[in-house]
Each structure stands twice: as structure tokens, then as C-alpha cells.
Amino acid sequence: MVRNTEHILGSYLISRSILFLSLSMVLFAQDSTKLVLEKDSTFYPGKPLLLSLVVPGLGQVYNKEPLWKPGVFIATEIVSITSILYANKKADEIRMDYQKFADENWNIKDWWNFTQLINVERIEYDSLNVTSTELKAMRDYVGTHHLRVHLKGELVNLFNTEFLPSDSLHLLSGYLDSDDIGMVKDRHFYENIGKYDQFVGGWSDASSEWYWERKDVGENGEIVIKTPKKQKYIDNRYKSNQWLSFAKFSISAMMFNHVISGLEAVWANRSIKNEKSGEDAKKVDLDLGLLFNPSNSYGVGGLSFRVNF
């Protein structure tokens, strides 16, 4: 399984390469058309800006600033990359553990038996302080979501297909002890068995230890059906996702480090040139802001900036 943050990091590196090429083209165009620079101009912040956007701290080195300045940006870059790699590694380790746990403690036969048992077993709903409707999801293998069943051997010839949706489980009930039946254990499988009440019966402790909790959603809340093993599985998935979130945060920190290094390099370059020439400072207008993203929990989708000089 490829981790999401690997895709994010790969996209970031591609974007940075495109940024480098784009800025290079802009700078060459400025040199050839002389739209920005005059012959007697001594101020050209484009190069240190470009260098810092590609490698934080490089613009400061170009400006011959005190070593602590590029050191801060370079150190931040190293820490960010290290954090990304470490967080991805931890998330992957936990992911492998909870998937192994699910493979050992969730199976399709237990799921089928539980749905059949719970349908004929008399449940004292009043004593549980819930209604039959609220527990309906766990009593039926047919629901809003489904898993994929992988058929092998003679079952492929019998059903004329290698895959069946779990909604067809009644057709397979007589073959659940066969080695020719397995589950397609993709990302959806590992998400569904921990997320939806419909699949709670597949956990090996469901028949004797299932319980419910009321989740605060809206006015009346929502019933969530669990078992001790399902809860352990959910907790480990949460830990893995927390590490993935930390990796995403580190990527954002790395991007901000590039931008801040670039902006600082522009200001420093202007100050150094003015000190040498003794001219009055020319204005450098900066516009820095956040991009809005409604799908993000914090509403922040990125950073925008503009430099006018």
C-alpha cells in the first residue's frame, strides 16, 4: 500500500521543480527585454529569491549574510524532511500491525454466523436503552456498504466469476469453511470493518462481547456498535492517522520555510545594495496571505505571496 503522504511529498517536489523552471524563464525574459532592470541598476532580488525558494538558506548565502541565517533555514529544512520520513515510517509500522490484527481477528464466517444468530436471538432492547432500529445495522450483512469476496478453485466455475459483493453472502453460506473463499483486503476492507456497524459481527469476540456507545452527532446522537477487539483496532488506526497528519504538517512547515527564506532574502538583498550604493531605498511591496480551503478543518489551503520591485 502506498502511503498518502508519499504522494503529497512527491507532488511537492514536482511542484518545486516546476516553480524553479517557471521562475528561471521569467528571469531570462526580464534580462532579454530589459523590462525590469536598467543598465545602472544595482538592485536585483530575483536571484536570491529564486535560490531560497528552491533551497532555503541559499539566497542568504548568495547575499553573504551572517551564517546563522542560512543555518536556521537549512536546519528547518532538515528537521522537516526528517519528520516527514519518520512520521511516514511510524504510520506504516502501525498500519501493518493493525492490518495483521484484523487478519487474525475478523473473518467472513463469524460475520455470517453473527447476522444469523442476532436475527433469531431475542434482544431486550428496553434493558439496553436502545431501539431495534438503532441496532439494525449489525443484524444484516446487506447494508449501505459492502466488501468484496474473492473466489478460487471450483467456486470460480460454479459462480462464473472470481469476485462477488458481500451482499451475495447468502449464496456462499455453504462454502464459508472452504479455502476457496477469501476477502479482497484492500484499503476499503480495512476501513469498513472498523468504521461501520454493519461489519461488527466479523470480529471474533462479537457474539459474546458486543456493546454500543452513543456518539454525539446532532440532537439525538448516533449509536456505534463495538467489541473490545474492534475498539483496539480503531485505536491503532487512529494512531496511524495521527502520524500521517503530522507528516502533512511537516510538509506544510517545509513549504513555509521556503517562502519565508525567499522573502527574507529579498529584504536582505535590498538592504545590502542600498548600503553599498548609498542610494535611498527603493520600495519593495510584499503581499502575503493565506488561501482559503473549505474542505480543510482549519480553512487554510496554502500560502500566497507577491513581490513587486
Describe this structure in words.
The chain has 11 helices and 7 strands. The protein is mainly alpha-helical and 309 residues long. The longest helix has 50 residues, at 228-277. The chain is elongated, with a radius of gyration of 29 Å.
Which regions are unreliable across 5 or more consecutive residues at pLDDT < 50? 21-43
What string, H for helix and E for strand, traces the elements in order? HHHHHHEHEHEHHEEHEE
Name the overall outline: elongated
Radius of gyration: 29 Å
Our estimate of the beta-strand percent is: 5-15%
Which class best fits the helix and strand makeup? Answer: mainly alpha
| Helicity, as a percent range | 55-70%
For the largest sheet, list the strands in their spatial order: 2-1-3
> How would a textbook summarize the main sheet?
3 strands, antiparallel
Number of helices: 11
pLDDT averaged over residues: 79
What's the β-strand tally?
Answer: 7
- State the end-to-end CA separation: 47 Å
Short description:
The chain is mainly alpha-helical and 309 residues long.
Topology:
Blueprint: H1 4-33, H2 46-54, H3 58-62, H4 68-105, H5 108-120, H6 125-128, E1 148-151, H7 154-159, E2 163-165, H8 169-172, E3 181-183, H9 187-195, H10 206-209, E4 211-215, E5 222-226, H11 228-277, E6 285-292, E7 300-308
Antiparallel strand pairs: 1-2, 1-3, 4-5, 6-7
Helix pairs in contact: 1-2, 1-11, 2-11, 4-11
